[in-house]
Amino acid sequence: MTGNTLTEQTEAAVSVKQMAYELFQAALFDGRLKSGQLVSQKDLVKLLHLSIGALRELLPRLEAEGLVTVVPQRGIQITAIDLPMIRDAFQMRAALEREATIHAVRNMPSMILEEQRNQHLEVLEALKNGATDDLLNLGQEVDSEFHDLLIRSTGNEIMILAYKINSIRIRLIKRERISLNEQLLPNTFADHLAIIDAIADRNEARAIAAMDTHISNARQRATEF
Question: Model's pTM, two decimal places?
Answer without folding.
Answer: 0.86
